[in-house]
Design brief:
The chain is an alpha/beta fold and 260 residues long. Helices cover 34% and strands 14% of the residues. Strands 2-3-1-4-5 form a five-stranded parallel beta sheet, sandwiched between helices.
């Protein structure tokens, strides 16, 4: 009698840009039972050989991600996933709802406590076209200027996205991980993720290739930082401009993440 091997359980990493999703995925893929296949909605992601996949429907794309995913035969998988950044949903308006309907989906929402850090990093990457860093050289990214309108739009987009994720998935199917904790305490952060995904504990090897691209404080990398700080003083985003203060995530009345 032939026994059918069950399909690995699906998961997805959701995040705003520049919140450490590549770094998290690199560590997840060290686990012998877990496979994350990069950015499903990124045309240029080399994990996906089918360059025409984005011309198909949303359901077909998710079937590709979770049922016909790129295979690593040396792994006995119990979890398979991918990652999607918030801007990538814009070109596929119905994709988020289709994702939320996928059976038994586990969602890892990766957040950065200070959304301004995310915007600063995104702007630097766009200017330099350097999205990943693999060496420990001291080449500093360029300082940048940000407009008030750009900051307001990005902060609101982050709030709206995080709240949409919190509304769309049951608390038992959603795990919020913090970029800062991932950097500072990777073992503790991963231990919670393994438990959430229902796989055996597996410690990080400590040999991750990716390096942090910018370690300087915001006031040394944003040329008009003081101007922006004065504008946002007294408002809901003033805390993003308080250098040296350790930010903590806000929670909604249900205990879920409200703002990052």
């Amino acid at each position: 009698m032939t026994q059918t091997v069950p399909s690995p359980g699906p998961f997805v990493i959701l995040a705003m840009p520049r919140t450490g999703t590549h770094y998290l995925e690199e560590m997840l893929n060290e686990h012998p039972q877990v496979l994350s296949n990069g950015e499903l909605l990124n045309t240029y992601d080399t994990n996906w050989l089918d360059k025409d996949r984005l011309t198909g429907g949303d359901r077909a794309l998710l079937e590709l991600a979770y049922l016909r995913y790129p295979n690593q035969t040396h792994k006995k998988l119990t979890r398979v996933g991918c990652k999607i950044n918030e801007p990538q949903f814009h070109d596929r308006p119905g994709f988020f709802a289709e994702l939320a309907r996928w059976p038994d989906l586990k969602v890892i929402l990766l957040v950065r406590r200070n959304t301004l850090e995310s915007l600063r990093s995104l702007t630097q990457a766009r200017q330099t076209r350097q999205w990943l860093k693999f060496s420990s050289d001291n080449d500093a990214a360029p300082s940048i200027k940000l407009t008030v309108a750009c900051c307001e739009a990005y902060f609101k987009a982050a709030d709206d996205f995080h709240n949409r994720v919190a509304r769309s998935f049951a608390s038992t199917d959603l795990h919020v991980a913090e970029y800062e904790t991932l950097l500072r305490e990777p073992s503790a952060c991963l231990a919670k993720i393994w438990e959430f995904l229902g796989v055996a504990a597996f410690g990080p090897s400590g040999t991750a290739n990716l390096k942090r691209q910018e370690a300087r404080p915001l006031d040394q990398t944003i040329e008009n930082f003081e101007e922006l700080r004065r504008h946002f003083a007294g408002g809901p985003y003033a805390r993003f401009f308080e250098i040296g203060r350790r930010l903590t995530p806000r929670r909604s009345g249900k205990g879920r993440l409200a703002h990052s």
